[in-house]
Specification:
Layout (H helix, E strand, L loop, with lengths): L5 E3 L3 E4 L6 H8 L2 H4 L8 H18 L3 E6 L5 E9 L10 E5 L1
Antiparallel strand pairs: 1-2, 2-3, 3-4, 4-5
Helix pairs in contact: 1-3
Length: 100
């Protein structure tokens, strides 16, 4: 299976997850503005499981959520990507676009 590991744009870099991404992703998961629309992970272990989900998703499907870095500074600014929907609804099966 083809695995796209880096997407390089003029302003952003989308890349695979590194261990150093845990702390900034924990901060995003605990941001009240993010929590208004998404499930907040109560502790660091929830974010670890979330990142592992994306690593597994990439291995299974060749795509998932990438880390988004600001190219000029290397600053972690979030995550975005594609997800195979696992719940049943009138519009499934499908792939959704997501971001945090």
């Amino acid at each position: 299976m083809y695995l796209l590991s880096i997407i390089d744009t003029p302003r952003l870099i989308l890349r695979q997850w590194k261990e150093s991404d845990l702390s900034p992703m924990v901060a995003i998961h605990h941001d009240p503005k993010v929590g208004e629309f998404f499930f907040n992970y109560p502790d660091e272990s929830g974010t670890v499981r979330w990142i592992e989900y994306w690593r597994t998703h990439f291995a299974q499907h060749g795509f998932g959520f990438w880390v988004v870095e600001e190219k000029a500074t290397g600053t972690f600014i979030g995550a975005l990507g594609l997800n195979v929907v696992t719940f049943e609804a009138s519009f499934t099966s499908c792939v959704e676009i997501g971001w945090r």
